[in-house]
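name: query_chain
kind: protein
chains: 1
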Amino acid sequence: MRKFWEIKRPWTKRDSVQNESSPLIPKAGSSKEDSVELGHVTAELQAGRNSGQGHKISPFPRIRPISSYSLMDYFLKYFLFLSNLVFTVLGLVILGLGTWGLISKESFAQEKIGSIGTDPMVLFVTLGFLLAILCILGCVGALRENCCLLQLFSAAVLVLISTQVLVAIIAYSMQDQIGGYLRTGMLTAMARYQDDLDLRFITDEIQSNLQCCGADDYRDWENNIYYNCSAPGVLACGVPATCCVNPLENGTVWNSQCGVGARLLDEFTAQSVVFLGGCLGGISRLIEQHKGLIGTVGFVVLAVQILALFITTRLLESIQWHRVKIRLQLYDI
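structure:
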């Protein structure tokens, strides 16, 4: 009977083979293989932990919050961005006005290109261009958190501050020489009075507001070819209407001929018609009277630039420290 069952049940061998290959039933000796594999994984993790130079390595990384900027950092960032944006617009406006002035006066024409260096509009173009470029660096650098642009902006501001301080020291120590340069500049403006509308406007404004005539006195208008006494025109031996004591005829109509022939009169008679004193003395008195205001304005401008430099430096430190913390957290798994 026992032999019969051993012969008549061939499925017994087949079932045992299927059970051995089933994924739900472990094979014989699988416990030993799993133990060996687990030992290899544990050894690799231990080796990585020992050679990770202080960085923890785990089979299940932990998600940690990335460090964020403080409220003060956000304030400094957007304050620097908005302030530079405002000054960028101002610089572009100044640049546009200067360019429009040069084009409208046809200063790039061949017959005028030689004297473009003394054109006041060149000062507006240069100032507007430099201001716009400098503020664009700060604006984009703050918005994009670009350390390279912010460093370039801070370096430019530092150079600007140093230049202004150096110019102030030189101006204080060379007051006599500056007076000579100012006199030369005003005589040049008077000589080109009819040829350059900007110089004419500036000269008229100075003479009208300061109630003066010429650089040193009203006789300086001899340097102008139209007011020279040897000139053939009606303006010979005269002065501009802005030199007149009363340029309004009957108090209402502007009399552009009020200074005609004024230098042919004796000083006693001429003083009732035109101002005899020069504008350099009036400029010196104006500076002396408002030196407190000038000093305050200069101090405020310098303080604003120092504040911008401080904010940029603080923002740079914050950005760099923030990036270091992010790297440390990415490696600290």
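note: The first strand starts at residue 248 and ends at 249.
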